Amino acid sequence: MMDSTDQIDQVRDDFITRMGVVAMGEGLPRMAGQIFAMLVFEGEPIAFGALSRRLSVSRATISTSIRLLEERGLIRRVNKTGDRQDYFQLADDAYAAMTKYALAGTRHAKSEINDTISKLPEEAEGVRQRLDTFAAFYDTISAALDDVATRVSKPKN
What we know:
Elements: H1 4-25, H2 30-42, E1 46-47, H3 48-55, H4 59-71, E2 75-80, E3 83-90, H5 94-119, H6 125-152
Antiparallel strand pairs: 1-3, 2-3
């Protein structure tokens, strides 16, 4: 029979693995998803070296993913007094940053569709209608993501 600590460890490891797969589906490195998942699950700053050890990967692999997550505003670097090692934790507005990144992607897709529409000859009415419907789909997603971004944004003090 498994005690609760072992059960939590097993659930955590499974969650981290699953979020790595989710990240890959969203075009991110698997390791970035795993680091993000670990920070979410643990809820406290984790040292750079501990990330490398706990995920069983090189420091270089951790470094690359840390840089990407920091650039996207998903995590932040913190220091502990008397400790020279870098620690990382979830950014205060990580979920809003995720939403804004997704919103930028939908806006880019709509822009590409509109560019294509602008190049069509007038007699391509059927194609134009289908592309207009496609663009409207992205308008709907963008409006929903705008709403989500507002809801998950933490007010600045």
